[in-house]
Amino acid sequence: MKKLYLQTFGCQMNERDSQEVLDMLTAQGYSLAHEPEQADVILLNTCSVREHAEDRAYGNMGKLSEMKDTRPHIVLGIIGCMAKLHQGKIFKRLPRLDLVAGPAELYDLPYLLAEVQEKRQNVNWPDTRYTRVIAVGRTHRPLEQKPAVDTRTGGVRAFVSIMEGCDKACTYCIVPKTRGQEISRPPKEIIEEISRLASVGYQEVILLGQNVNSYGKRFPDGSGYKGPLGKLKLLQEAPDDLLDFPQLLRMIVRRTPMPRIRFTTSHPIDATERLFDVMAQNEPLCEWLHLPVQSGSNRILRAMRRGYTVEAYLEKIEALKKRVPDIALSTDIIVGFPGETDADFRATMELMRTVAYDTAYIFKYSPRPGTDAALREDDIPKEVKEERNQALLAVQEELTAASLGGRLGNEAEILVEERGNLPGQWFGRTRQNQGVIFESEDDWTGRLAQVSVERLAAHTLFGSLAPARV
Ligand code: SF4
Fold first, then answer.
1. What fold does the segment set 3-135 form as a domain?
2. CATH superfamily of 411-469
3. Closest C-alpha to ligand 1, atom 4
4. What confidence score (pLDDT) does residue 220 get?
């Protein structure tokens, strides 16, 4: 039996993609190797959002290539966003590599690996210049070819990708180039997948997409809703081809028994009050939303081509908090974007305080080749980027402590995921996605526990089981 070693970099979409690679190759007779030394095929599923992620992948694969000295038969492959962005250039930095395949070619992997083997019949093997394979030409992933196998047989939380690609054009972002235009999975498939996951015991799904709010715009068969959302009335049961994200959520709630549902990533333009209504009206939809703002300055938002203003963003936050009072909010912020002044930076700090985020992922701007922003001078000095990064991290530290502190003395419903680090400890999350630890002799895996929250240490809440109510 052939063995596959798979390393994943980057976002949850990549994690979900890696799971699909494993599903496909398991159906082809592969088993998973936990160490590269045991593997016949080694794949790195890569990320190009920041230079650092790419450097790590190059570094790892460079090291792994040395194994060919003693094990020339192994197959080495780079898949994912880096493959799409850098294509054949990757072979220059990794001459012993056998395969480069983009995110859209994920479902072609079994054939591509067979092609590598076929080419190895070539007299020049093991000279990979004659046997390497590259596949980066697809404009989008043919979702209709999605493998039927799903090897997930039990767990607590599961990722479910609902769409691929992004139609936006944020100037700093490489994703539209590496993942193509938005294509949504047919709702029937999504509901079947979630129902299957529920039937094997999963208690929570996280719906994934680069911009889940524009679900339904385009399906693999070319159908999808047309025209501005505003025209669409919130129908009880929309015909499938007119389905948008709020209605997909309603369908999932109605047609599957999944107790908890989250989704990421949202975009402020497409996150509508109708979505907030659906979140307020449907119990399985958790009170948590990840809504990247990126900057608190309208000038920088324009330069990023985000398509909304700070005022419009804050209006949406207010509309959401009115409908879902105990919502927990998280966001992404880029600090040090070209041209960012002190005033822009302070505006971002102020916006963070105004929204009072529960968590924020703060990134220092790094130019990505192939993006519009990379054409601009990266004029914010490294030290200033670092200073501003630290300052925003400190603000978020205060906000997170305040939000978690607000839980002390209250009860919370926890979905228990696993054992804690110490004997008798259990770890789970609130509906607001906050981590909680409590102690019990019983096995709580995958169960909902009512916990009285008693103390906070770093970003973890500690508590004890609340007395059972009769
Ligand atoms: S919305 Fe913008 S930042 Fe997000 S994936 Fe699309 S282009 Fe990138």
1. Rossmann fold (3.40.50)
2. Nucleic acid-binding proteins (2.40.50.140)
3. 210
4. 86
Give the residue, 276 or 239, on which the prediction is more confident. Answer: 276
For the 152-286 domain, the top CATH level (class) is alpha beta
Candidate from 177, 211, 270 with most ligand 1 atoms within 8 A of CB, to mutate: 211
DSSP 185: P
Give the ranges where 3-103 is alpha helix by DSSP (H): 12-27, 51-65, 81-86, 89-93
Question: What's the half-sphere exposure (Cβ side, CA atoms, 13 Å) at 166?
Answer: 22
Summarize pLDDT for 420-470 with one digit per residue, the tens.
Answer: 999 999 999 999 999 999 999 999 999 999 999 999 998 999 999 998 765
Q: Using CA atoms, how far apart are residues 435 and 401, in angstroms rounded to an integer?
A: 13
Q: Note the helical H segments in 74-151.
A: 81-86, 89-93, 109-119, 128-131
For the chain, residues classed under CATH 3.30.750.210 are 152-286
Ligand 1 centroid – CA 166 distance (Å): 6
Tell me which of 13, 163, 168 to substitute to probe ligand 1's pocket, judged by most ligand atoms within 8 Å of the beta carbon: 168
Q: How many Å lie between the centroid of ligand 1 and the Cα of residue 108?
A: 25
Reported as a pLDDT band with limits 50, 70 and 90, residue 139 is confident
Closest CA to 295 of 251, 339, 342, 345: 345
Q: What residue type is assigned to position 401 of the chain?
A: A
User: Measuring CA to CA, which residue among 187, 324, 210 is closest to residue 256?
Assistant: 187
pTM, to two decimals = 0.91
